[in-house]
Amino acid sequence: MNQSEIREGYFGRYGGRFVSELLIPALEELTTAFKKYSRDSAFKKEYNNLLREFAGRPTLMYHARNISEKWGADVYLKREDLLHTGSHKINNCLGQALLAKKLKKPRVIAETGAGQHGVATATAAALMKLECCVYMGNEDLRRQALNGFRMRLLGAFVVGAGDQMGTLRDAVNEALRDWSSSVDHTHYIVGSVIGPHPFPSLVKWFHAVIGRESKKQIIRMTGKLPDAVFACVGGGSNAMGMFSGFLTESGVDLIGAEAGGTGMKKGEHSSTLKMGKPGVLQGCYTYVLQNKAGIVDNVHSISAGLDYPGVGPEHAHLLETGRAKYVAISDDSALAAFQELSETEGIIPALESSHALAAARNWVFDQKKLGRKKPMIVISLSGRGDKDAAEAQRLMEKQGRVFQ
Amino acid sequence: MDELQQYLIECKKKKGFLFVPYHAFGDPDPETSMKVVRTLFNAGADSIEIGLPFSDPVADGPVLQRTFRRILQHEFSMQNFIDFLSKIKEEFPDKKILVMGYINLFLQFGIEKLFEKFYKNNVRGVIIPDVPMEEKSYIIEQYNLHKFENKISWIDFITPTTQPHRLVKIAQNARGFIYMVSYKGVTGRNSFDLKPISKLFKQIRKYTGVPILVGFGVKTSANVKMALEYADGFIIASRLHELIEQNLNDRQKIPGLIEQELKLLLA
Question: What are the distances in angstroms from CA B35 to CA A317, B91, B254, B266?
């Protein structure tokens, strides 16, 4: 299929709009608004001002010298963790909240896994005086209790989703159900490059700033393009943002790190692109972890933000075309990377981002085995690890580590 | 005219309206499930929407979510589902059946192959709540389903949010019947009023002769009366699974209770 034959809302054969007829008018309205405002210089100016003055962009590109020395590579970290609210999610939330304002919708809803998107949505809603309701899986509310409180503090309603084991996917289901009845006055701020068209394109557009800045910064700092860029992939929003800056640079390897969990058996991981197959989940045709009949699997990751049985449809396309590679990183490797960056560099990364760090480390060591000297890489440090501190401590003490 | 529309029009001639209940396959167990189907037909159902369970039923409310979770405690297989259809066909050879389910299960089995098996087992319509008009035509194209055009009607929804230009397009191309969603939301809510959308019925009638069936929130005989003021028939789903849910410890009673409930409803 050549580009011109690809239907709107599709990436190759992935994407589309698999939702109830009830939601179609809202998606069409949003698509039209997105087309209009993404070309509107006043809107772009307003959005960029928010990014600069409220969120703290541009974020730093940091040459991590200690890790570089330790790994024998040139390692650069794109510091999305330094953004207001602690992760890249705010890029998208400010943009979509601004769109909600333009669409004259006084209420926004969101799903959240780790709580980062929920907090960012609650923050944008507080700033722009929008009513806000966030759905979060009950299991995630347990392991990310702090973010539950932060959202409430910011004035959002927080609703537990799914049963005791409820995670991100249950939260998406609940948000879609809410939207079915509230669509007249509510905008759904989807938190990743997932869901029905136009969300995968729209969310990517708001995160493209990560890749744009990274490319400029790395060229300014080193005079060249990196050998590879790394990002973690749950739904895949920070990865899509980062990759989008380098898609056309064929010399730059794009590597996504999915959650390998505790093993590669069903239910132990959430490595959708590695272990899943194409299907329809929550509004789009993409890779899905599912059984033979098409019932979606329960999945696992140490990191609530990656604990998802689907993935953004554009990632499915990048996998199929071979432009990006995706690897599975186990809970233990992620936790080790979490510790390594904290101790070595003085930066506590989110457990999600720790998957990207572990993937980068593996890649560097593989490259060196192949005889490559000192590769230069950029890692998307999508979020900071404060929210994970309690869960990480619990897990590390379980492994026998003593903190005095 | 497609086979389903023909069938429904004949059914309506006999008793004046259409009654099409929904039953999720295997709730609460395969044996009781078959008894429920029997009860529904004996109570006067013209057809039954046999539901496929799904793990992520985004168009459904809490009752059907719990129903699917209950069913999926046992591994679901499409072959068992097809066997169930064939048992229904054996017992009720004159009844035409509908299948309702989320698209992923169709795609994983192979939609063309599945339609063939469905047709052999008296299925004359499918209802797929997460496939709107545009994706439907794309799937028909892609999987070469034109040959089923008059054999298995792929039912369209019209909802209170459907804009006029879409309504015209959906109505003009409708086959079998139109599934009129009574309110904005997911299945099983406790409020039902068609007055606010009465205009939509008139609009639809302008562009198509297929029957209109109302679904979402039909729970009482008053709801039924109102539904029949505007539409050719109605669909009932959550209420029946609520009854099953409330009697899981005494499954023998379930068919009898459903029979009573339907008597009250159709009175």
Answer: 46, 11, 9, 20
Note if the bond before A198 is cis, omega within 30 degrees: yes
- Are the beta carbons of A18 and B131 separated by less than 8 Å? yes
| Domain ranges across chain A | 11-52+89-199, 57-86+208-398
Determine phi and psi for B21, rounding to 5 degrees. -75, 160
A 10 A CB-CB count for B184 gives 20
Burial grade of B93 (CB within 10 A; 0-12, 13-18, 19 or more): exposed
The answer to whether A11-52+89-199 and A57-86+208-398 have equal CATH topology is yes
What is residue A160's DSSP assignment? E
Contact B161 A169 (CB under 8 A): no
Exposed/middle/buried for residue B249 (C-beta within 10 Å: 0-12, 13-18, 19+): exposed
> Taking CA A259 as the corner, what is the angle to CA A253 and CA A265, rounded to the nearest 5 degrees?
120
Per-residue tens of pLDDT for chain A, all 404 residues: 344 456 899 999 999 999 999 999 999 999 999 999 999 999 999 999 999 999 999 999 999 999 999 999 999 999 999 999 999 999 999 999 999 999 999 999 999 988 999 999 999 999 999 999 999 999 999 888 889 999 999 999 999 998 888 889 899 999 999 999 999 999 999 999 999 999 999 999 999 999 999 999 999 999 999 999 999 999 999 999 999 999 999 999 999 999 999 999 999 999 999 999 999 999 999 999 999 999 999 999 999 889 999 999 999 999 999 999 999 999 999 999 999 999 999 999 999 999 999 999 999 999 999 999 999 999 999 999 998 998 899 999 998 888 77
- Helix (H) and strand (E) counts for chain B? 12, 9
* C-alpha distance from A19 to closest chain B C-alpha (Å): 4
Q: Does domain A11-52+89-199 have CATH number 3.40.50.1100?
A: yes
Predicted ipTM > 0.90: yes
| B2 in active site | no
Tell me if A296 and B59 make a contact (CB, 8 A cut-off): no
Sequence ranges of the domains in chain B: 17-265
Alpha-helix runs per DSSP H in B121-248: 133-142, 164-173, 198-207, 221-230, 238-246
Instruction: Report the alpha-carbon distance of residue A35 to residue A21 in Å, rounded.
Output: 22
CATH architecture of the domain with residue range B17-265: Alpha-Beta Barrel (3.20)
Chain B, residues 64-103, CB within 8 A of chain A, namely 72, 75-78, 102-103
Question: For the whole model, what pTM was predicted?
Answer: 0.95
Instruction: State the fold for domain A57-86+208-398.
Output: Rossmann fold (3.40.50)
